Amino acid sequence: PLTPTAALVTRARARGRGVGAFNVIQLEHAQAIVAGAQAANAPVILQVSENAVRYHGALAPIGRAVLAVAEGATVPVAVHLDHATSTDLVAEAVSLGFGSVMFDASTLEYGQNVAATAKVVARCHAARCWVEAELGEVGGKDGVHAPGVRTDPGEAAAFVEATEVDALAVAVGTSHAMLTRDAALDFELIAALREAVPVPLVLHGSSGVADQDLTTAVERGMTKVNIATHLNAVFSGAVRTALAGDASLVDTRKYLGPARTATAAEVTRLLRILNAA
Ligand code: G3H
Ligand code: ZN
């Protein structure tokens, strides 16, 4: 069933488990992620990014589809708006019934990030919506990888206190959109952030993290683990194989179906690595 993000993430943090948060672009992504979560018997987060909304031209069609997929699931599924910079889009997600939003003001300097985030938090909390924010920019969305950026634990604690955010995305060595899984995570910093910050921590750019390091990151204190690029690689790889094998193939189900199946299997595998069940 559709489940509030707050419930899902709070429970996972208390038990030292990870929560997989996977990005949805196509409907097939949502179906694959839920099928994979059901096979792992684990809760999961479906997230739609502002970039994906830009691709579709609107939030409602894909957002309503994702909510419907979540409602039909046999495991708890939360629906989240990812990397929003538009407060109008945040408001629309809240009114559609999304359980949470990430408001990303990480490119602003500290004081402006605090002010902008606090405003969004106040509005979202009035509507019982959970808010994630980011401190210390995790680069790579623009193709510029900046794995060297780090979030300071003291500043992170002050940021959470000042904004009252429910979860915090931190920079600990990852970078968005990596195709190789060789990011060097700063595990000592993760442990220090877990000590200093009273809310769940979010790892962005997790496609670049090797299996064993994902497990260790959760052990040291990361809770919500965002994975997008890696699943797209699996999905697109299966599409490529299906199309390459048959030049007369035109029915979209014949290549999107295998892609969905392959993605579901990878989600199941990842959820086990994150100790999410
Ligand atoms: O917000 C989404 C994630 O940070 C995804 O990053 O595409 O590098 O896995 P990724
Ligand atoms: Zn991200």
From TrEMBL:
SUPFAM superfamilies: Aldolase. One of its GO terms (biological process) is carbohydrate metabolic process. The keyword Ribonucleoprotein does not apply. Binds 2 Zn(2+) ions per subunit. One is catalytic and the other provides a structural contribution. The keyword Transmembrane does not apply. Its cofactor is Zn(2+). InterPro entries: Aldolase_TIM, Class_II_FBP_aldolase, FBA_II. Zn(2+) 1 binds at H83, H176, H204. The active site is at D82 (proton donor). Transmembrane segments: none annotated. Keywords: Metal-binding, Zinc. It holds the Pfam family F_bP_aldolase. Zn(2+) 2 binds at D104, E134. GO terms for molecular function: aldehyde-lyase activity; zinc ion binding. PANTHER family: D-TAGATOSE-1,6-BISPHOSPHATE ALDOLASE (PTHR30304), D-TAGATOSE-1,6-BISPHOSPHATE ALDOLASE SUBUNIT GATY-RELATED (PTHR30304:SF0). This is Fructose-bisphosphate aldolase. It comes from Streptomyces tateyamensis. The lineage of its organism: Bacteria, Bacillati, Actinomycetota, Actinomycetes, Kitasatosporales.
